[in-house]
Specification:
Blueprint: E1 6-10, H1 16-23, H2 26-29, H3 38-55, E2 59-64, E3 70-81, E4 84-93, H4 102-117, E5 122-128, H5 132-140, E6 144-150, E7 156-163
Antiparallel strand pairs: 1-2, 2-3, 3-4, 5-7, 6-7
């Protein structure tokens, strides 16, 4: 998958160091209930390798076209959102690459890919309700507020949605 400035590809075990720079960034971890250590990051890659085989999609490595460097991940996963398993567009961009439109660019490509290559009628994005940057990215690709809910750890989550019919061809 390619955009103007990015290409998205399946992650692999060689992406560990680049992914660590993304997921261990304090600007990201403030929205997670845990810290990403070596074991969690290796597990993150392994889970996505399984997703590619089972679902045909997962979180893909987001790389800059200009130099091939991985600056984050973005993709489609199946997530438990308020007790339902729903297709979710997720994105994580390295701190020094945030606020440059990369998350929006990658998420828009994933949205278009998902509606072209799957039968899902709706796509979702969810995050901690205080994660305004993530909410703005969802809105920037055409999503709108769907609902809030409390998860199992009593964290309030914000859910955005876009329906296939919302896309104008």
């Amino acid at each position: 998958m390619q955009t103007e400035r990015l290409f998205l590809r399946e992650m692999n075990n060689d992406d560990y160091d680049a992914l660590y720079q993304v997921l261990a960034d304090p600007s990201l971890t403030q929205y997670y209930p845990y810290i990403f250590d070596k074991t969690r990051i290796k597990g993150w890659i392994e889970v996505n390798l399984k997703r590619y085989k089972v679902n045909g999609f997962g979180l893909w490595a987001v790389c800059l076209k200009e130099n091939g460097k991985m600056i984050g991940d973005c993709g489609l996963t199946l997530q438990k959102i308020d007790d339902e398993i729903l297709p979710e567009i997720g994105y994580h961009i390295r701190g020094d690459c945030q606020r440059k439109g990369y998350a929006k660019e990658a998420a828009k490509a994933v949205l278009e890919w998902a509606f072209k290559n799957t039968d899902y009628q709706s796509l979702y994005s969810y995050c901690k309700y205080t994660n305004t940057a993530s909410i703005k990215t969802a809105e920037a690709i055409g999503m709108h507020f769907y609902r809030k809910y409390s998860d199992e750890s009593n964290e309030i989550k914000h859910v955005s949605v876009i329906h296939r019919g919302d896309i104008i061809n």
